[in-house]
Sequence to fold (369 residues):
Amino acid sequence: MKETLRFGFILGIICIVAAGLLAGVDILTKPKILAQEKLEEELSLRAIFPSAHHFDEVRDGEKVIYYKIFSSDGKFIGVAFNTSGKGYAGEIKTLVGMLSDGKITAIKVTSQSETPGLGSRIAETNFTERFQGKSDLSGVEAITGATISSRAVIDSVKKKAEEIRLRVENDR
Amino acid sequence: MKSLIKEFSKGITVLNPTFGLILGLCPTLAISTSLFNAIGMGVAATFVLVFSNLIISALRNFIPARIRLPSYIVIIATFVTICELGLKAYLPGLSKSLGIFIPLIVVNCIIMARAEAFASSNRILPSIFDGLGMGIGFTLGISIIAFIRELLGSGSIAGIGLLKSNEFILVMILSPGALLTMGLLIALSRLLGLTKR
Fold:
């Protein structure tokens, strides 16, 4: 009994010191990590919407549903949104830019863990440019040898694009 | 001083984690697809190894033998988390490409093995040198594998393309390539007497 208490006490001290240390590191790195995420988000948005001047987040509670994109003269030109689908080796996340008439401007694969050299080719421009200017995505061709990964991207973009189109109509 | 050099160099040669002890294969197989990732992984693991060895050695008389494993895991996990947050804040690119394998350093058996086999029964300074040697040995091992796999599998070295797309062997970048490369390198290192059986 006494042994058990002593062991618990020692382990407790180790855990408290570890927790304190981690809390300190978290406080130090948090603003930096948030800034990095913000920067990355902004760079991604600019990459899929080169004509964008500024963005507005449309939120539902904490979550960002989509971004409204405005040109330099303040005109609403389109939206951008994140979508994800299940690929061959895990989740594939894609950022999509869509003009107000429903045409895709560009897509960017932001995170994927597909087979290097095969499925990972979905992140290359050779594949992503197939979406450009399309509003009906059933015409987008999959990459030979990487059908599952390609379909995951195509289907997830298609599904979310329809959802967002309806939402934008309602929000107007 | 002489013994310190010995503790340091054994991790690079005879007891090399990758080719001698054959420990920590999960990150070795998964991350050795590119030289850049391999070096990043090696440095991160070395950081964790040195600091966990340091703390475990310093606390070796404070931690009772019966609760040493949970204590080691808490200590190792703390340094891994510090490392993960640091990478996210200052090297987001590397943090993204290493992904899940940074938090998985916690279960890298090299770190646990050195804590159990060395740091728990040695003084602080030799433990630091042991951790440093093992870490550098691991970095070296994983980098050699990554160098070969990246060159043959995607035709580049550290992201710089060298070969044309029809000149490299795709399978080298996939898991069979990792096993083949590692097996041949282990055989070679034993043949040359660099590591022990």
